[in-house]
Amino acid sequence: MFRKADAGTELFRGSLTHADSIGHKEVLEPGDLQLMSAGRGIYHSEYNHSDQPLHFLQIWLKPAEQQTAPSYQQINRMALTSPLLVGPQGSGAPLIIKRDAAIYFYELRGTPRQLSVERAYAYLHIFSGSLHIGGQTLSTGDGIMLQHGEQLSINPSEAGFLWFDMR
Fold it and tell me: The domain containing residue 166 runs over which residues?
């Protein structure tokens, strides 16, 4: 399934202030990644830290466990040594999620890449550039969903994307 976005979308711009009822108050800049789980309950707010335009991705995944303790995690992607961003406990991911899901961050420049759907389904979301997939060109804001066992051959000119592999 392909979805086309409006042309000219710019992602990851500006500064976002986060504050919550478990004591965190952070300013997130482009490159910062935040994972918050509301669990049994958390009050939080996010707002533009300045008068400059703000553009970011906010992604919601339903956890496998309900009524757990709320949690907050934050890293900068420059500290990553692998494309794996998010995963369940024991996955080696720097951000731990309470669900059988893995989220990967890729920035490719002309290097073909093969991706396989390991779990029930996967979703690829392009946040910059363009990819050539199956005879089509997908650009910033576009996405594609695949099912277990499917493979995706990617030929990027220059692209950044998130790969969600989920149950």
Answer: 100-167
